[in-house]
Inverse folding.
C-alpha cells in the first residue's frame, strides 16, 4: 500500500503536464465562479468563498507538486508565492482575507494564465 501511495505523489517530470493542466483548470473554475460577482459577493456568500478558496488551494498544491527542475526552468512564475498562498489558505484558514483572494483572481490570474498555457504547450510538444 505505501509503495502505491508514495509513487502516486512522487514528483516526476512526466507528471508536470498534468499538474499544469490542473492549475489551468482551477484558474478557469475560480474565474467562472467569480463571473459577474463582486468582492462583496465573495465576502458574503459562504459557498462562493469556499469554492474559490478550494481552487486556490488546488492551484498551490499542483504548483508544489511540479518538479524542482520544471520550476527552476520557469523562474518568471512566482512558484514560491503560489505555494505559500496554498499553505496560508490551508493552515491559516481562520485568517483568510477575501480582498487578497479577490486581488489574486482579478490581478494575478490574468498574468498567470498565459504563462501556464505556454508551459502546457511546451510540455505537450516533448
Amino acid at each position: 500500500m505505501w509503495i502505491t501511495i508514495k509513487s502516486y505523489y512522487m514528483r516526476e517530470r512526466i507528471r508536470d503536464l498534468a499538474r499544469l493542466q490542473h492549475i489551468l483548470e482551477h484558474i478557469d473554475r475560480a474565474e467562472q465562479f467569480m463571473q459577474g460577482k463582486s468582492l462583496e459577493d465573495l465576502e458574503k456568500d459562504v459557498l462562493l468563498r469556499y469554492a474559490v478558496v478550494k481552487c486556490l488551494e488546488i492551484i498551490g498544491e499542483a504548483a508544489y507538486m511540479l518538479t524542482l527542475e520544471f520550476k527552476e526552468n520557469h523562474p518568471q512564475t512566482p512558484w514560491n508565492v503560489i505555494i505559500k498562498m496554498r499553505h496560508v489558505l490551508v493552515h491559516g484558514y481562520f485568517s483568510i482575507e477575501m480582498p487578497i483572494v479577490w486581488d489574486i483572481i482579478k490581478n494575478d490570474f490574468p498574468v498567470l494564465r498565459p504563462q501556464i498555457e505556454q508551459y502546457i504547450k511546451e510540455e505537450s510538444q516533448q
